Amino acid sequence: MTHVGKLQAPGQHVDYRSLVVVLLSPLAFALVFASWTIFAVLGVELKRVLLFGEVQFAMLLAMPMFTGALASLPMALLARRVGGRRVMIGCLLLICPLLWGIAHSDVYLEFLLAGAGLGLGAGSLAAGLVYVASLCPRRHAGLALGLYGAGMLGAGLTYFLLPLISQAYGWPMAPKLYLMPMLLVALLLWVFAEDAPSAALPAVPDYLVGFEPRPERALALRRWLPSPAVCRLALYYSFFYGAFVALALWLPGYLAAQYQLSLKLAALWALAFTLPGGVGQIVGGALADRRDFRDLRWWVSACVMVCLFLLSYPDFSMQIHGVHGDIALAFSMPLGGFTALLAVMGLAMGVGKGSLMRLLHRDHGDDMAHAGGLALTLGGLFAAVLPLMFVLGNEWIGIRTAGFMFLYAALAVCMLLMLWDANAGKGKARPRQAD
Asked: What does UniProt give as the signal peptide span (predicted)?
């Protein structure tokens, strides 16, 4: 497949289309992600008003991630076929009536269905990924993709504005806050952006045509399915993406309950995680333009693992019967220490996401629809599972930090897979695309 990025020699002047895409696509990403995180703040208030339980709250957080995961790969493939700009605009317009519907909902099922509809906005994320990858200059692809992924800073918009709007005008006004910006960005994409020139698509699998012998159909199906290398990279990416998204949704409620904060203060403290995550995405993409993430992934993973280990410790007290009497010990993670660990972990996760997406583009940039779509799909599914795991820790195990314990175990499994991958000789020379 031939992309515009391949036609640009290093140092060649970048046309206005690339600049428009780099500026507008992150705005679209930020608005979609902000709409997803509405329930991270609004759901805490709705839980109090509508009197639904922790499991229902977790399902409300998980529903956009689940439907978004299901939509990511099909929308990425559709973007490759009809153009990323068209798919992004369609998804942005689709979200608008759902935001309006949330403002006029009054029962749990309506909020759940609206959340499922918001998940379809993931089509905009997947389409934007294909769009940016097709138009960005290849030598700076990591930086461009990192800037795009930094759209997750949209969660900060929700954390900052929604409590103020809800307090001043009532919660039904909060979802309407995003309607005008969403329509404005869709209009700007329509007026100023252009789709990449049509590229030759991979051959349609023969099993869809029905005229080839069975062995040839099987061979075509194998060519159409993602390669094991793509699946491995997508699996690694799914941890950083899924964990970041799930924590961005869960942290306001967690902080409010753990440290008895108001919702407004809890949302502001949660910015300590999302802001470094967005910055780390840009840094990780820029670093990966210069060196291979395979050398960096161990340091990033080790940093996140240390943070998760410390965050997993619940408050406890113990009494030791010493020689000269009893010794009382107690531990309680202070709010400042908790947010400092969140900031370091958010930065490391951002570097991991940015670097891995650049690696996907470098090794599989000829088919970013499959590679990026699969990565977002696996990450979305992992993100959808995590709120339920957090509730499992709260309600059934009785330890509020059990969610961090689960993330620690998931990262350990991911690192074991990376170690097995390295020892299995996967470091063989892989075809590199020209930078």
From this structure: none
Candidates 101, 77, 95; CA nearest to 31 is 95
pTM to 2 decimals?
0.82
Which of 202-216, 299-313, 399-413 is the least confident region? 202-216
Q: How far is CA 422 from the centre of its chain?
A: 26
Contact criterion met (CB below 8 Å) for 364 and 371: yes
198 DSSP assignment: P
Going by the DSSP 8-state scheme, the letter that residue 327 receives in this structure is E
Of 86, 358, 368, 430, whose CA–CA distance to 201 is shortest?
368
Under the phi-then-psi rule, with left for phi > 0, alpha for psi from -120 to 50, and beta for the rest, what region is 321? beta
Contacts for 406 with CB less than 8 Å, ≥ 6 apart: 386, 389, 390, 392, 393
Domains delineated in the chain? 15-200+242-423 (1.20.1250.20)
CA dihedral of residues 233, 239, 242, 246 (deg, nearest 10): -170
Q: Across the chain, how many H-helices and E-strands are there?
A: 19, 2
Q: Say what the alpha-carbon torsion angle 137, 301, 231, 292 is, to the nearest 10 degrees.
A: 40
11 or 363, greater pLDDT: 363
The residues, ordered by sequence, that sit 6+ positions from 277 with a Cβ below 8 Å of its Cβ are: 152, 153, 244, 248, 346, 347, 349, 350, 353
| Per-residue tokens: 7 | 């036609």
pLDDT digits (tens, 9 = 90+) for 107-163: 888 889 998 888 888 788 888 888 888 777 777 788 888 888 888 887 777 787 777
